[in-house]
Task: structure prediction
Amino acid sequence: MEGYIHSTESFGTVDGPGIRFVVFFQGCPMRCLYCHNPDTWDIGSGNVRTVESILEEYESYKEFLKNGGITCTGGEPLLQIDFVTELFEKAKEREIHTCLDTSGITFNPNNSEILEKFKKLMKSTDLVMLDIKHINPTEHKKLTGHSNENILSFAEFLRDEGVDLWVRHVVVPGITDKEEYLHELGMFLGGLKNLKALDVLPYHTMGKAKYKELGIEYPLGDTPSAEKSLAFWAKDVIMQGLKDRLIKNRIQD
Result:
């Protein structure tokens, strides 16, 4: 099977556990205001690669990938779900740890064909890293151009399927740093028993150069980078919301 790949990275250290081989897929339906990879947006372009060629490239680095594996990211890898599934199934045959880094935007619990494809993929997926951009549906649409309904449903689907989950949330000054929304996000996460980690990341402006190179106006203009202290505070608020949800669950039980 062939897929459209933007690029690969040999020694990824922030894309799942250990040192990993990272596959960046081409194409994304989202237009997040803080996206730092606008060069991955176009669908149906990029380098045409086969599953076998990717696995061969992984094997050439395998001895250096300590406690790692393969991570599929993007762009949005689930636009090419059949390719990811074949890649992960063949990776598991070689006992390679598989990680999917996704926005979850292509999930649709009301479409039986899509649901079956997701269930098939999850059988060969060890870990999902899910980007939750915003917990509030209205604010999420302003930020990404899409509703978050199916994304949150995807998180609950992963819980029901028993797939390990890492959640990542970017703190953008004036956009995703409101206490009420951070607490609400924590309350939602408190209902996910499969949650293994939470990364709260400070917004940065390193993607500006790519926008300039591509001749695209940078959506967030002069919005400043977030201080690490803001990310630490935001994580504390989210964790308090998570704890409040767990307390609420105990009381109801």
User: Anything to note?
Assistant: The first strand starts at residue 2 and ends at 12. The mean pLDDT is 95. Helices lie at 51-61, 81-93, 112-122, 137-144, 149-161, 179-189, 208-214, 228-252. The first helix runs from residue 51 to 61.
